[in-house]
Here is the input.
Amino acid sequence: MHNITEIGMEYDVLRENVKIAHANHQLLTENNIRSVDIMGSIGSGKTSLIVRIAEKLTAKGIRVGAIAGDVTGDDDFKRMVSANISATNCNTGHECHLDANMVKRSLKKMDLRSIDVLLIENVGNLVCPADFPLGTDLRMVVISTTEGDDMVRKHPDIFLHSDIAVINKTDIAEYVDVDISVIKNDYSKLTGGALKMMECSVKKDKGVDEIISALKLW
Here is the structure.
């Protein structure tokens, strides 16, 4: 009986999250905001990618907002603000992921009329965020060569719950002894060849324009 109760509670939580996520998406759509949930492990380069995307969009007159999700602290938030991004910080406390209700509260703090694109940086984790959609148009997962070439095999769910997968820091692959083709082949097998993993090096500004186009942000 105890196990049944736990399963029922988990189902209710996930169902309620989906309900709030739908409301978030409707709110963003009503305000003509294109939105992306950016997931990935700590150190994959999510913040750097968000900043670079924002710089490129801003240069074209596209107004960018962001939500910086972290368990605690405001380091990523400060980096976004320093890059002139209209951002809000969202600390989860003990939770290893953002959920739709946290995003709902964050959206209330933002002037949605001044935003064309919303980039949500999820908590650094390749497991928990997969089960909690936030109400964005697209979900993107970012990994890096520094994490090894077995990331897709170890964490398949987050790749299956993402519309776009990106491998960052490709410029140092040879120095960390990682074969990018192994990662891309694993992803192709997982997705049945329907999707291709995108390559980029934020530091070298390679592949970022292609990612922006794939996300349909311009």
In short: The first strand starts at residue 34 and ends at 40. The CA atoms of residues 68 and 76 lie 6 Å apart. Helices lie at 2-30, 46-59, 75-82, 100-108, 151-154, 156-160, 180-190, 208-214. The chain has one domain: 2-214.
